[in-house]
Design brief:
338 residues; binds zinc ion
Length: 338
C-alpha cells in the first residue's frame, strides 16, 4: 500500500492560487474537497469555479510526483553521481525501490517535445520552429496558400469539424493557422488591435497548434452567440482543443474574449481544463505548483507530472505510455496513461 506522506495543511497551502470566481475575479483557494482515498492519496477539487454546467473534475495527488520526490531526495543524499537512473525492474542503482512504474533519467536532447502544453503569451515568447502541414484540403480554409498547422492540431480540427457538421453547427473554416514571427510583425505593425494581437514571438500561432476558426455567414462579433460558436465552446475539449481566450479571463490571459481562437493541448488536458474552467496560464501554474496530479477520463487514469530539468535530463516512466511537452517557462510536463 502506498503511503501518503504529505502534510495535508502544507499541501493545501502549497496549491494556493488565484482562480476566477463567477466574474468577480476574487482570489480563492484550492481547497481540500473530500476524503482520503484508502491511503492512495488526497482527493482535490478546485473551489468556487464556474462549472459550465458540468461538475468540477477532482484530482488526486500525483503518484509519480511522490515517487520522484523520494527518488530525488535519495539521490541527492547519495555520494555517487550516476545513481539516479532507474533500472527496468523498478529499482534504482543506489538500491532505492521504486513503486509504480519506475523511472529512467533521459537527456532532453533524446526527448520528443510535443509542445502541446507550451505556454505562449505576453510574458513567454515562443522560439521553436514547428513542423507544419497545409490545412487544405483536409479542412475548409479561408485562403488555400500559407494556411498551415501542426499535424496533431489539424487532425483534431478535422475530427471536430466532422462532428460540428453532424450537429448543424454551421459551415466552419480555418481563417488563420501557423504564423511565423515575420507575419506576426506585419500584422502587429499594421495596427492590429492590441487587445487581440500579440507582438512577434509572443503569438500562440507561432506554435502551429493554434487556429482561428470562423463560420460562414457569421461575423466575429456574432460568433459567441451563434449556434456554431456555442457548439465550439462547449465541445472543442472533446477533440483536445481549448477556447484559449474565454470571456472573463482577460485579466489572466491578457487577451480579450476570442470565440474563434482554439489551441490544441491534447484530450486529457483539454478535458481537465474544461471541467475545471481553467485557462492555460492557470493550468500550467496548477501543474507546476502541485508537481502534478492524477485524474480519470473515460475510466482511464492519467498521470500528469511536472519537472524542471536537472543536469539536462528529466525522469520518464519506464512502463507506461507517455508524452512530454515543455511548458515554455522552463519546466517539462509528462503525461502518462494507464
Ligand atoms: Zn488566433
Amino acid at each position: 500500500m502506498r503511503k501518503n506522506h504529505m502534510n495535508h495543511n502544507a499541501r493545501s497551502n502549497h496549491v494556493r492560487r488565484n482562480t476566477r470566481n463567477k466574474g468577480n475575479f476574487a482570489c480563492t483557494l484550492i481547497v481540500l474537497a473530500a476524503a482520503i482515498l484508502c491511503g492512495a492519496g488526497v482527493l482535490y477539487a478546485l473551489a468556487d469555479i464556474e462549472t459550465r454546467g458540468v461538475s468540477p473534475l477532482s484530482f488526486t495527488e500525483s503518484i509519480f510526483a511522490s515517487e520522484l520526490n523520494a527518488l530525488e531526495s535519495s539521490t541527492s543524499n547519495s555520494s555517487t553521481s550516476n545513481s539516479s537512473t532507474a533500472d527496468s525492474d523498478g529499482t534504482s542503482n543506489n538500491g532505492l525501490a521504486l513503486t509504480g512504474s519506475g523511472f529512467a533519467s533521459v537527456r532532453l536532447e533524446n526527448i520528443t517535445d510535443t509542445g502541446k502544453l507550451a505556454l505562449v503569451n505576453r510574458e513567454f515568447a515562443f522560439a521553436g520552429a514547428p513542423a507544419v502541414v497545409p490545412v487544405w484540403p483536409t479542412v475548409p480554409v479561408m485562403f488555400v496558400d500559407g494556411m498551415d498547422l501542426h499535424p496533431s492540431a489539424l487532425a483534431a480540427i478535422a475530427d471536430m469539424f466532422e462532428s460540428a457538421g453532424r450537429a448543424d453547427a454551421g459551415s466552419l473554416f480555418v481563417s488563420s493557422g501557423f504564423r511565423g514571427a515575420n507575419t506576426q510583425a506585419v500584422l502587429y505593425d499594421n495596427g492590429a488591435n492590441a487587445a487581440f494581437a500579440l507582438p512577434p514571438g509572443h503569438s500562440e500561432h507561432h506554435t502551429g497548434l493554434a487556429a482561428d476558426i470562423l463560420i460562414t455567414g457569421v461575423s466575429q462579433a456574432e460568433m459567441a452567440n451563434s449556434p456554431g460558436g456555442r457548439w465550439l465552446a462547449e465541445n472543442s475539449y472533446r477533440y483536445g482543443l481549448i477556447l484559449r481566450y474565454p470571456q472573463g479571463a482577460t485579466h489572466i490571459t491578457g487577451i480579450e474574449f476570442e470565440p474563434w481562437h482554439f489551441r490544441y493541448v491534447g484530450r486529457p488536458h483539454a478535458y481537465f481544463m474544461h471541467r475545471n474552467n481553467l485557462v492555460l496560464e492557470e493550468y500550467i501554474e496548477l501543474i507546476r505548483d502541485t508537481g502534478g496530479f492524477d485524474f480519470e477520463m473515460n475510466g482511464r487514469t492519467y498521470h500528469i507530472l511536472h519537472q524542471f530539468p536537472r543536469n539536462g535530463a528529466i525522469y520518464l516512466p519506464t512502463r507506461l505510455r507517455y508524452t512530454v511537452s515543455g511548458d515554455n517557462t522552463g519546466g517539462f510536463i509528462v503525461t502518462a496513461q494507464e
